[in-house]
Design a protein that fits this description.
248 residues; 12 helices; 74% helix
């Protein structure tokens, strides 16, 4: 329960009291519950969409669903995506890229990345709403958080300090196995026939971005993890829209 509480507090706007001091080991262990938190975000979004679909056009509802997910997560992952896009697009050395990513201002590459991801996510969710694929809307955020765990596991941090480094270094094999098991169950519940495709997409997306981060930054950062979640979610929502005939 402590792991879940830490993960919920870390990933969302919800603040739940945690007994005692939170150590780097606690943060690393909480990664095992990231997919569970993702599922809660997805379930909340799905329930609200179902309740409002009778009074709101599907496209507008899809946009509000994206806004809700961004609000609940404080735009945490979207901010990481924008920073990573700016760093990758604007720097020519690992040091310069990391410097750009640390800047709070959002540049052209970050703005473009945000617009593309939000447009693609909104259009995919619009298709899911039309197809009444409520389970997909609930489960994809869980698989996106699983991609974060895959990226962090046995990875090295590009920066010498910070919250990301202290947590990434303590993502254990046990945490990885718990997160993976939960992701497998979610995928099988959503679309058994194509569960390997969904899981493979989450894993390959995560590993590709991790490889790029190690190559261009010298390791991963919290921004990299946020970008992994957003890109994996967009791809998984798009795949779910393609699998509509199998989601009923």
């Amino acid at each position: 329960m402590r792991r879940f509480t830490i993960a919920l507090t870390f990933l969302t706007i919800f603040r739940v009291p945690v007994a005692g001091e939170i150590s780097p080991s606690d943060l690393g262990s909480s990664y095992s519950c990231f997919p569970v938190v993702g599922l809660l975000i997805g379930l909340m979004t799905s329930v609200i969409v179902v309740l409002l679909r009778a009074v709101m056009p599907a496209l507008l509802l899809a946009a509000w669903a994206c806004a809700l997910m961004a609000f609940v997560t404080r735009g945490f992952h979207l901010d990481g995506l924008a920073d990573l896009a700016d760093g990758f697009g604007g720097g020519y050395t690992p040091e310069r890229r990391l410097e750009i990513m640390k800047d709070s201002a959002t540049g052209a590459f970050g703005s473009i990345a945000l617009c593309l991801v939000l447009l693609l996510k909104t259009s995919a969710i619009y298709s899911l709403i039309l197809g009444k694929a409520w389970l997909a809307l609930a489960i994809v955020p869980a698989l996106g958080r699983f991609a974060i765990v895959v990226c962090a596991y046995k990875s090295s941090c590009a920066r010498t300090g910070g919250l990301a480094k202290s947590s990434i270094e303590h993502v254990s094999q046990n945490s990885m196995l718990i997160a993976a098991s939960f992701a497998v169950v979610c995928s099988l519940l959503m679309v058994p026939k194509f569960a390997p495709v969904l899981l493979g997409t989450a894993v390959l997306t995560s590993l590709l971005i991790r490889w790029l981060a190690h190559r261009l930054l010298g390791g991963i950062t919290g921004d990299v993890l946020g970008a992994v979640n957003e890109i994996a979610e967009v791809l998984l929502f798009a795949l779910s829209a393609c699998f509509l005939d199998y989601l009923h």
